Amino acid sequence: MKLTKSTIPIYHGRKWPVGLLNASRRLNVSVGHLFLVLTGARTSRNTPKLIEDYEELVKELKGGVK
Fold first, then answer.
1. Which residues does residue 11 pair with via DSSP β-bridges, in sequence order?
2. Cα-atom radius of gyration of the chain, to the nearest Å?
3. What one-character-per-residue DSSP string does the chain give?
4. Which of the four pLDDT bands, split at 50, 70 and 90, describes residue 7?
5. What are the CA-CA distances from residue 44 to residues 11, 54, 57, 59 (Å)?
6. What is the pTM of this model?
7. Distance from C-alpha of 7 to C-alpha of 37, rounded to nearest angstrom
8. Are the beta carbons of 61 and 19 closer than 8 angstroms?
9. pLDDT tens digits along 17-46
10. For 13, what's the count of Cα atoms within 13 Å in the CB-facing half-sphere?
11. How many other C-beta atoms are found inside a 10 Å radius of the C-beta of residue 43?
């Protein structure tokens, strides 16, 4: 499902549960690339893996996975 501006969740004043700068450094991609992938504006063959890695990072930082 493609996210639109109205469906992007807000987390305590932020759009993302993990800051994009922090996530981009840990996932080894640029901030701009990560933003475009998460908003659905950019797709490639690696997009599903990057989204999955971001979701795992969110779980890890929330204490769900160690």
1. 14
2. 12
3. ----TTTS--BTTBSSSS-HHHHHHHHTS-HHHHHHHHHTS---TTHHHHHHHHHHHHHHHTTS--
4. low
5. 27, 16, 20, 24
6. 0.70
7. 15
8. no
9. 788 888 888 899 999 999 999 888 988 888
10. 0
11. 11
Amino acid at 7: T
| Token reading at 60 | 């890890």
Q: Distance from first CA to last CA of the chain, Å, rounded?
A: 28
Tokens of 57: 């990072």
Instruction: Identify residue 29 by its one-letter amino acid code.
Output: V
Place of tokens 């990057």: 50
The answer to whether the CB of 54 falls within 8 A of the CB of 38 is yes
